[in-house]
Amino acid sequence: MRKIIPSLIAKSQRELNQRFAKVGKHFGVFQLDIMDGRFVKNKSFMFNFKLPKNKKYEAHLMIENPLKWIEKNWKKADVIIFHIESCKSHEEVAEILEFLKSKKKKIGIAINPETNAREILQYKDAVNKILVLTVHPGKYGSRFIPQTLKKIKEIRKMKRKIAIEVDGGINEETIRYATNAGADFFVVGSYLQKSKNPEGTANEMARIISKRLK
Fold it and tell me: Does the active-site annotation cover 167?
């Protein structure tokens, strides 16, 4: 089932509560954009945050040294997604994978727009999903990069049944392109936060996905 997943960015518990209040009652799964101000320019969730219960969470780690964060915070998310670009060696990737598997966590690996899809080829059988960044990461509202659609198609050829998630610049226009390219999950940030009717916006996006699949 193809899904829309709201992303959340927050620098404080108060901001997190406000953003969650905007979209929280309409969705069951959320992506937490964890940013350290070094791997990307902005910071987010760099505090001891508390999350509403009875929801599911993905932690998208846009940080240096992801294993350090994972070892401390792995209980806070159902899915942990780390960037291939944040790892300095195959051994570091293997250590992350081994730790997460020992905790029975679902695992995602993320890839930036400028990174070749071949960089993650050797890990395709070790993860549950691949997150393709369709913008340069680090903030809400970045512009969708059409060239990333080719990467979605390349990854789909690598492994037909892998879950492919896209993140960045997703709206009612770009979600059509990502769907046709082969994406399964769609992370939506500013487009939902700015909407006066997030539920209606999400329903329209879901309708577009369904229509394009026929």
Answer: yes
